[in-house]
Amino acid sequence: MQKKKRKRSILLWITGILLLLVVSTGIYVRNRIFKPISLPETIYIYIDGQKNYEEVMAQLRERAALPSEKIFRILAERMNYPDKVKTGRYAISDGMTMPDIIRLLRAGKQTAVDLTFNNMRTEENLAGRISQQLMMDSLSLLNALEDSSHAEKYGFHKETFMSMFIPNTYEVYWDTEIGSLLNRMKREYDAFWNESRRSKAEKLGMTPVEISILASIVEEEATYEDEYPVVAGLYLNRLNKDMRLEADPTVKFAVGDFSLRRILYRHLEVESPYNTYKYSGLPPGPIRIPSIRAIDGTLSPEHHNYLFMCAKDDLSGRHNFAVTHAEHARNARAYQQALNRRGIY
């Protein structure tokens, strides 16, 4: 009888220890599962078109400070995440738990990118800038930008397609496809060209696209924003008098070298519809993506009688404006002499 009691006591003791171990292990595991991660700042996980689970794990291991990668993998398996990896940019923030992260990734709840682009002169520049910020191949985007059928779909020509892109900041998902991006840019373009701006363009006898073309020249010509309306008024005066624009920035565009500081006679002879020294009217398309400030400055031109402009001889980037050719010739001579003194050829 005493032996039976001793055996029962030992059994109960062993059972108690095992139960204690199970409970302790359960508490430990539970604490690890639901332990908030500690991060000094929000980090981002990028999942591209390959959607590789191991690459996701590598990013989490390197940046997310998981309490336990082993437990995370077990949880991910239980929650069927490895088979449901979705592209995108995901924000992992301080205080999240491993189940929070898995649910976020599995549901594809992305955090948008603030897409920005400005100071873009060419399609190559634009495609490169956007591809740096989105999961988008720059060559594929460039091909779309240079595709006439794409331009016509949105109501533009190949030469004017760039005017559809209004430089601003847009919330866009990182894995946005090219077609979706172009659709978004067209919606933003239509919203930008509201009734007020269209009315101003109409009063100037121009379409929104023509305003964008002129604004692109204005912005290349004027270094300082306060000169935009003055320069715009000058070019409008020339257009209204059927004078050639004779805008140096269009020559630089035609030559393909925006770094030129001195326009020579050989540059003026380049054969291109963008050479406004040879061809009247506006060029076929914008020579850059004009900023909102340049567009609005062009829509509100200063009323004056200026027909000529020349960079000041102090090389400040500002201009001397003239009504007569004789006055302009004096300004141009002073500027050429300033370039000579500084050895700029």
Describe the structure.
It is a single chain. The chain has 345 residues and is mostly helical. The chain has 3 domains: 32-111, Dna Ligase, domain 1, CATH 3.30.1490; 114-192, no CATH class; 195-304, no CATH class. The protein has 15 helices and 6 strands. The protein is elongated.
Write the layout of secondary structure elements.
Elements: H1 2-33, E1 43-47, H2 53-63, H3 69-78, E2 88-92, H4 98-107, E3 113-116, H5 123-133, H6 138-145, H7 148-153, E4 169-172, H8 178-192, H9 195-203, H10 208-221, H11 228-240, H12 248-255, H13 265-268, H14 292-299, E5 308-311, E6 319-322, H15 325-341
Antiparallel strand pairs: 1-2, 3-4, 5-6
Helix pairs in contact: 5-6, 10-11, 10-14, 11-14
Brief sketch in words of this structure:
The chain is mainly alpha-helical and 345 residues long. The chain has three domains: 32-111, 2-Layer Sandwich (Dna Ligase, domain 1), CATH 3.30.1490.480; 114-192, no CATH class; 195-304, no CATH class. The protein contains 15 helices and six strands.
Largest sheet: 2 strands, antiparallel
- Taking Cα atoms only, what radius of gyration do you get, to the nearest Å? 32 Å
Helix content: 40-55%
Give the overall pLDDT as a whole number: 91
β-strand percent reads 5-15%
Note poorly predicted spans.
16-30
Features:
mainly alpha; Dna Ligase, domain 1; 3 domains; two-stranded antiparallel sheet; 51% helix; elongated
